[in-house]
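tokens incoming
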């Protein structure tokens, strides 16, 4: 007899599900994939970073023994320095199953040991809501982020919402290159926010999926975390190396928890206990690649170059898309295309326009109008702008 009739088919994931639909679209020569946030070259191809290629060759003879529960020590040390600079004494770090795993592990810990509500930006990476719910935050609260009318940050409302949060709440912040909006706080705004966090003892949980990818400059991108750290706000960070190393499938990430020295053993011990039950220990290969690159001066320099290559291409493509849209449309302001930063462009298109683009023009972006800029290139930018213009008429 059928066992699973009560289960029902859940809705497809709004990001990865769309990628499947794209693959099935038979218009192979003209369809445009702007869905998943993975870097592509101007030829539309994935890019293995040169430093990653060299490190991979060096690792071909590595063994396949288990890593410790908290990961490869050389990796956790090197990734701490990326986030904290040299001041790592109060960092507890666990290697995680990429950024997703870091968010999950942190929320599992916080649910068990920190009795406080969780706040997410009202608009955010859709998986944040899934992870929060599965970690036991049944009804995550939200704070204002984007002003829909202008596609700019609504900083006043953001401050007001967080001011109204119970003292001691957990607040997830995007470190840089906010997904999906591409809209970040300015440094003076981060300063104001930090003062609010101090006054209300809020726990800052930085999602850092795009370190170095926003501006191409690691220190600049890490600044909000360091500012909160220097102000004594004990920030946590969920770090992904998917985008900045192009290691999407290797699941390389880290959770950094800033704690007092006397709290280290307890916090690390419980993070390890949770990880042991969820997946036992993390995969080694990607972490070895990252630590090899971070510890070798030549490979490190090559990686910094690659960060610039990727972020520069995104900057240039934004300019190109904006000028093509300005040519193709009348009375539309496309300034936000170039003022936003990072892999994503929040077009401001409505859901019905997005669906029309998909059905009539074979252009695939998320229902909320988010475009992965990595999918735009010199070949498809003109037809893309023409298609957007057509649905705006
Ligand atoms: N957080 C944000 C905001 C993201 O955009 C992503 C990936 O798209 C992630 C976390 C996690 O990615 P991964 O688990 O591949 O590192």
């Amino acid at each position: 007899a059928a066992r699973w009739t009560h289960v029902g088919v859940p809705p497809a994931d709004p990001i990865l599900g769309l990628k499947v639909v794209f693959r099935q679209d038979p218009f192979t020569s003209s369809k445009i994939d702007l869905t998943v946030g993975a870097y592509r070259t101007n030829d539309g191809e994935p890019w293995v970073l040169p430093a990653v290629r060299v490190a991979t060759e060096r690792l071909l003879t590595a063994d396949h023994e288990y890593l410790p529960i908290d990961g490869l020590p050389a990796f956790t040390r090197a990734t701490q320095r990326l986030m904290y600079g040299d001041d790592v004494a109060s960092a507890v770090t666990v290697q995680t199953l990429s950024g997703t795993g870091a968010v999950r592990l942190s929320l599992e810990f916080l649910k068990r040991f920190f009795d406080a509500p969780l706040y997410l930006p009202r608009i955010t990476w859709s998986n944040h809501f899934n992870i929060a719910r599965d970690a036991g935050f049944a009804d995550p609260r939200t704070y204002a982020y984007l002003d829909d009318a202008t596609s700019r940050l609504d900083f006043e409302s953001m401050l007001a919402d967080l001011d109204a949060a119970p003292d001691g709440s957990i607040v997830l912040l995007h470190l840089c290159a906010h997904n999906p909006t591409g809209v970040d706080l300015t440094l003076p705004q981060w300063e104001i926010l930090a003062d609010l966090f101090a006054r209300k003892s809020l726990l800052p949980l930085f999602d850092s999926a795009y370190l170095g990818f926003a501006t191409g400059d690691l220190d600049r991108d890490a600044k909000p975390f360091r500012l909160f750290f220097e102000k004594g706000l004990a920030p946590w960070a969920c770090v992904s190396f998917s985008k900045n190393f192009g290691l999407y499938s290797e699941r390389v990430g880290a959770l950094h928890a800033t704690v007092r020295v006397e709290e280290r053993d307890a916090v690390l011990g419980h993070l390890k206990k949770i990880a042991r039950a969820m997946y036992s220990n993390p995969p080694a290969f990607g972490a070895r690649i990252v630590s090899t690159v971070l510890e070798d001066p030549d490979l490190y320099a090559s990686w910094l170059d690659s960060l610039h290559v990727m972020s520069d291409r995104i900057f240039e493509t934004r300019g190109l898309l904006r000028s093509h849209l300005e040519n193709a449309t009348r009375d539309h302001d496309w300034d936000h295309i170039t003022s936003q930063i990072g892999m994503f462009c929040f077009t401001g298109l409505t859901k019905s326009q997005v669906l029309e683009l998909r059905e009539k023009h074979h252009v695939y972006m998320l229902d909320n109008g988010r475009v992965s800029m990595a999918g735009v290139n010199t070949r498809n930018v003109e037809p893309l702008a023409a298609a957007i213009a057509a649905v705006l008429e």
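note: The longest strand covers residues 91-97.
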